[in-house]
Amino acid sequence: MIEHVQEYWLEFLTIASVHLLAVASPGPDFAIVLKHSISYGRRAAIVTSIGVGVGILIHVAYSLLGIGILIKTTPVLFQIFSYVAGAYLLFLGWGAIRSPAPKNIGNVEIENVLQLISDKKAFMVGFLTNGLNPKATLFFLSVFAVAVSPDTPNVIKLGYGLYLALATGIWFCVLSLFLSSKKVTRFIGKRGYWFDRIMGVVLILLAIKLVMPV
Fold first, then answer.
1. Closest by alpha carbon to 172, among 113, 129, 111, 120?
2. Does the residue 105 lie in any domain?
3. Domain that holds residue 36
4. How far apart are CA 32 and CA 126, in angstroms?
5. What is the reported pTM?
6. Which residue, of 19, 139, 166, 169, has the fewest CB within 10 Å?
7. What is the domain count for the chain?
């Protein structure tokens, strides 16, 4: 029993270490959380971050069900998945680029300049951004194929997945708190729409990278 616990603990530490490096690297999740922090404020960014974390469960589900093997062994299917994800990021990026400059701001507080977005929409954007991210797909396929033993029970794998979802959500929530702090918003000031447009360009570049052959 103790040997099994030690085995799973080593697997967990391996997965947690690799995940820390993966989640800290810039990507679509980071870009969309940054965009929402600037455009919509702290609450929207946190809700988006929660959506990103919950989106991890999509990858956990197909990894446990074995669908991941089908995606990995069927390049055409994975390519279609990449095109869908690229189209979604392109849609988000184009919307960000078209972000209008605020009019007649004067000395109004920066908080009042923020645009509005519903919690449901913010959550779904985060959820879909992560759920449709092919890089996340490759990450989970690699982790569950290399770091996790085939003999590891599905309930343990599910525990790994729940941890990854929780850790991802917490990471981006903390990032949201920083990006939406008063110091950051004051630094961005009335030129926040330019940051929004820059994030739009980043999202479009990420979309192009997804569909371009390696």
1. 129
2. yes
3. 29-211
4. 7
5. 0.72
6. 166
7. 1
